[in-house]
C-alpha cells in the first residue's frame, strides 16, 4: 500500500509529466526566440522529474524491504513459537514467554 509520501510524490510526478509534455508542444510550435526559453524550462522540468523518479524508486524499495523484514520477523516468531511448543511437549514443562 503506497504511503502518503508516495501518493504526494506520484501526484508531483504526474504534474511534471504534464508540464514536460506541454513544454514539448510549445517548443515544437514556438518561434526561435521563445524556443530557447521553453528549452531551458524543459531541461529544468526533466531534471526535476528524474530526481523525483529516483526518489520514488527509493521509496518503493524501502516499502518492499519493510514488508520483507515484517514477513521475516513473522516467520521467525512462528519458528520460535513452534520450537517452544516442541520443547514443552518433550520436556513436559512450559517455558515462560519471552519478554
Q: Can you tell me about this structure?
A:
The protein has 2 helices and no strands. It has 99 residues and is mostly helical. The chain has one domain. Helix 1 packs antiparallel against helix 2.
The gyration radius over C-alpha positions equals: 27 Å
Specify the number of helices. 2
Shape: rod-shaped
Question: Which structural class matches the secondary elements?
Answer: mainly alpha
Which band does the percent of strand residues land in? under 5%
Low-confidence stretches: none
Write down the overall mean pLDDT: 79
The topology string of helices and strands comes to: HH
* Biggest pleated-sheet summary: none
* Helix coverage percent: over 70%
Q: How many separate domains?
A: 1
- Ends distance: 31 Å
Oligomer: single chain
> How many beta-strand runs?
0
Which descriptors would you attach to this protein?
single chain, 99 residues, mainly alpha, 2 helices, 87% helix, 0% strand, rod-shaped
Quick take:
The protein is mainly alpha-helical. It has one domain (4-91).
Outline the secondary-structure elements.
Elements: H1 4-29, H2 32-91
Helix pairs in contact: 1-2
Amino acid at each position: 500500500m503506497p504511503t502518503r509520501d508516495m501518493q504526494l510524490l506520484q501526484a508531483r510526478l504526474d504534474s511534471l509529466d504534464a508540464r514536460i509534455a506541454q513544454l514539448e508542444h510549445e517548443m515544437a510550435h514556438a518561434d526561435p526566440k521563445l524556443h530557447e526559453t521553453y528549452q531551458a524550462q524543459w531541461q529544468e522540468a526533466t531534471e526535476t522529474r528524474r530526481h523525483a523518479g529516483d526518489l520514488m524508486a527509493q521509496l518503493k524499495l524501502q516499502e518492499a524491504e519493510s514488508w520483507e523484514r515484517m514477513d521475516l520477523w513473522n516467520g521467525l516468531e512462528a519458528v520460535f513459537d513452534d520450537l517452544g511448543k516442541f520443547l514443552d511437549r518433550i520436556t513436559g514443562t512450559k517455558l515462560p514467554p519471552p519478554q
